[in-house]
Amino acid sequence: MKEIRSAEIQTDSQSNELILEGTPIVFNKPTTIYTPTGSYTEVIKRNALDGLKLNDTRLLVSHDHNRIPLAKSPKTMDIWTDEVGLHMRATLPDTEEARSVYTAVKRGDLTGMSFGFTCSNQGNDYDVNTRTRTINKIDKVLEFSVVNFPAYEEASVEARNQIQDAELRHEQYKQAQINLNKLLIKEIK
Prior knowledge:
Layout: E1 3-11, E2 19-26, E3 31-35, E4 38-44, E5 58-61, E6 71-72, E7 77-81, E8 85-91, H1 96-107, E9 112-118, E10 124-127, E11 132-135, E12 140-147, H2 157-188
Parallel strand pairs: 4-11, 5-12
Antiparallel strand pairs: 1-2, 1-9, 2-8, 3-4, 5-6, 7-8, 9-12, 10-11
């Protein structure tokens, strides 16, 4: 299931072209993800993108797949990784929407950037005691988006379900231990 995470975006003021730059994925930096049932910490490991082909990622506005993309890798958007994270540099088309987005980012009206990705259950771990999700392997980076508000409730639907399941199993395990101890105490008496 697609997940969305947020970062910042900026313009390249040295160029005459409409160019947006950003770092949508930051490695090894704990981030708080808010859900309807609380929050948890998430960390994307440095090697989570190793071996991943980033040749079909699009730059969108507000995750809207019905709009024409502002850019697409590798033709109009460069994507690369380093020790800090995943970076992008997109050359926007000369369209009304692209000019509007560029102007809003340049003025600081739009500062949010999200990314949509998929991650299998085998690609991440959740520690119920520390409420920390560690993403070890991202299956696909679907898109980057320029957004008004970078925090979306639907950003972690899969994670919430997985985390809630892990916490329920942990509570069931603790209750089973209590019940077993009660049985053992009865047998001793």
